[in-house]
Amino acid sequence: MSLCVMTPVIGTVNETYVRRHVNHLVPGAPVVALHEVPEEQRYWAAKGPKLLLPHICQGRQCNGPGMPAQELPAFLKRNEVTVVLAEYLNFAIEYVSLVRQLGIRFYAHAHGFDCSALLKEEQWSRRYQILRDADGVIVVSEKMKAALVHTGIAESRIHSIPCGVDIGELPNRPNHGRVRFLSVGRLTGKKGPIFVLDAFR
Predict the structure, then answer these.
(1) Is 0.90 topped by the overall pTM?
(2) CB burial readout 11-27, b (16+ within 10 A) else e
(3) 183 φ/ψ angles, rounded to the nearest 5 degrees
(4) What pLDDT, in 10s, does the model give residues 179-199?
């Protein structure tokens, strides 16, 4: 198997899961992206060969491939790609048909707003129907899975793999009556820092 990761952007500080997919799922795998953060602002770089496509996504709006049709197929063929993993559903839908026509397996990975906020809009529920042609869709929670099933994507094609950190085996800790906890996350409403405070209170 030769994996290619497709992502809207390379190098941002907050998309640690995309960085791990790009550089650690298959080290040195080819990468296709719409945009790479300028070097002075870049927090990570793709280690494998990369193809940068014209930037077609403005925030949550993607308006078609916006590229010569031969550019992506030639890159995938040159790197002997057999499987594509596309990050974010609103990005993935632009490429699923083209990639499948090349006989390459295609998986779309949902992360957050693409499977929550966007699905509140009827147009996105309709546009996501094209993901029925994908070999699979990966989500990070059962709630996301249920939302996509509701749009008409077969449950058998949706795989729930929660995000997490491998911390190894927990050490034995003597009981001194005090436990310290650390919560890590961006201070934005959707990350729920208030709920963390409420839980500990």
Answers:
(1) no
(2) bbeebeebbebbbeebe
(3) -115, 130
(4) 778 888 788 887 888 998 898
